[in-house]
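Supplementary Text 2. Reproducibility record for the structural model of the 255-residue chain.

All settings were left at their defaults, and a single model was retained for analysis rather than an ensemble. We include the record here because the model underlies the residue-level annotations in Supplementary Table 4.
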Amino acid sequence: MSIKQYKLYLIDLDGTIYNGDKKIKYAKEFVDYLNTNNIDYLFLTNNSTRQPKDVAEHLKKFDIETSEEHVFTSSDATKIYLEGKGYKNLYVIGEAGLKNTLNSFTQRETEEDVDAVVVGLDRQLTYDKLATAAKAVLNGAELIGTNPDTLLPTANGFVPSNGGQVKYLEYATSTPATFIGKPSKIIMESAMNLFSYSKDEIVMVGDNYDTDIMSGINGGIDTIHVQTGVTSLEDLETKEHKPTYSIKNLFELVK
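Retained model, structure tokens:
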């Protein structure tokens, strides 16, 4: 199978570059290939708890040499979305990675005078935070979720992720949320707009059909499914919209 060469690779992390705390074979070779040949790429992650510099540092554990300029998070895309809306005052549920990314906005402590409620994973979540967020939404603030992930993989198994937090507020306020991260086309368009390539020169690479592959499909670009994570080759057979390519591992992309 001959795979087209692209000018910009948007790359998932967990399940594609690493699995939890384990290396994935040929991930290092693939990133080294991109670096050596000066091919543009961005690691695209729904994780709002880390800033790009933290992600780049984390990747060193897997022998992946990269820099924060090659990382784009759901927090980064959320910031761009908020700026486009002209919002100034936020109520933020989330951890340091999200709050630091949004430090150019006024982050309120109460529900008063709030343009948008932004919800990212918060492992110190309390009822009071949810109550304040709900009141702000009922007052007219837009409800925004950095990502819709339901579960988060950890060394001790899967734990609840951000999707449940946002769903709580959707249900409590009868208000649908705007989701920024994969598979939304919002994060895809934000990432692609950082470059001047046409869509036929860009590809999304990932293991999870429902997030990675669908984000590429929703963004109108080609997709490469890697059989190293969540979605198996057999699973793909049940999907109506197929990825452009499905490969056994990332070595197939090293020319």
